[in-house]
Design brief:
The chain has 123 residues and is mostly helical. Helix content is 76%, strand content 0%.
Amino acid sequence: MAYAKCFEELEVWKESCRFVKELYEITGSGQFLKDRDLSSQIRRAGISIASNIAEGFEKGSKKEFIRYLLIARGSAGEVRTQIYIARSLGLIESSEFSILKEKIIHISSMLTKLIMSLKSKSD
């Protein structure tokens, strides 16, 4: 897999890790403290994005990497849904919601681009 020597070089992995840090900051304060279940679930889904990118990369085959990137993209959709729910419950402010939504859409887009790039390259 010539596009990177290790998963730590992948921009989408780096961005996902930064996003998880922000999720932890937001879900660990304010109104989120009133809903530990949603806080825990959104954190797990966020962690799953970066973790699946790394796990898929380490599998060593393009087919497996793509499969795990698709799982990571699914987790991004899960996080996106959960931030909508958190907003509707008043757990996050509109400004926090907008920032998280923009970032998770960007991560999903990065995953899609990487998947498409991998699919278009021959082995």
